[in-house]
Amino acid sequence: MSDFFQNGVITNFHNLTGRTTESLEKEMVQFARKRKMGLILPSLFSELEGPALNHIVDELAKVPYLEEIVIGLDRADRDQFLFARDFFSRLPQRHRILWNDGPRLKALDAELDKEGLSPSEPGKGRNVWFCTGYTLASDRTSCVALHDCDIVTYERGMLARLLYPLANPTFQYEFCKGFYARVANNKLNGRVGRLLVGPLLRSLQQVYGHSDYLEYLSSFRYPLSGEFAMRTHVLNNIKIPGDWGLEIGVLSEIYRNYTTRQSCQAEIAHNYDHKHQPLSEEDGTGGLRRMSNDIVQSLLRKLATMGVSLTSDSFRVLKATYYRNALDMMEIYSHEASMNALHFDQHSEEAAVEMFTQAILEAGQAFTERPNDKPFIPSWSRVQSAFPDILQRIYQAVEEDNEGHV
Fold it and tell me: What UniProt keywords apply to this chain's record, in alphabetical order (predicted)?
């Protein structure tokens, strides 16, 4: 395989020809005869009220090859769930909504919590986890994709490109990650990926030594993308974080369970934009500050499980190393912006780097102060060992919510 298609240690598929969505979908329909495909959509109710998800649903309604769509719905009361049922009813594919705040799923969650098997806090990770449980219980697909519900530039060809490496029966990939350029409104976006994750992965290798795992993460063009796909059986044994470390946590689990030859990434869009997070909320938490803290802790936990000695002194060295690398990368991005006639706000970029630098120290402190925290939601294989009928019960609860009275 030529270097053009190989990025570090994983296979890298570019969108070279601008192939039409219709031609891709014709192939996908053929693939679906052997490999049934599904989609998971983790959503907040508030996203149903915005323009992005409405357009996404309109696009998905045209997809001819999907066997099932599983929608995780958070922060919805009864009336809002009923609204959601009507909202998604235009989808011609089989689709089910997981009403995560409804009495049936909350009762199951309470049972799991008594055994320490429930996600410790609400959020995207918990939403995705229950959706994967239902997907396993439904057993209608052999590969499944996941993407966010706030993509304002969504086009259904993105889904076809994401699923193609798994759906093609002549390929043997287990996992595919989506990537794309983060440019919109005449400026560079993706601050967490550009200014935190990239320089941090380089800094971790400088401070703690070479790591095949860190090299693997560095191979992904956009490790924080919320668009990925995998063979459905993979869902049985992965342990995902319940916080903003979800994307890094999924990559880490794929690395642990599969060879790098079984992973790939695909360019799914030339243009991508979605809802942007503020640097932090008014109380100094949330936003990119909370996100960056969770991401750093996810990386530290993984390195610790691999035998890397993480100390308070090394965190201070890591902070200084990261800061220098991030400023160097920021300068390169300013040159790239200039070459492409894009707006570049040096002040806001440096402010982000300073906030990420502080987040590294805070994450290191949290890591050392709470060594007994359970960082991952248990895998479904473990949950089933404690509750052998749990998947059937989740399936029944969801069916009753979607088809019965609530």
Answer: Transferase
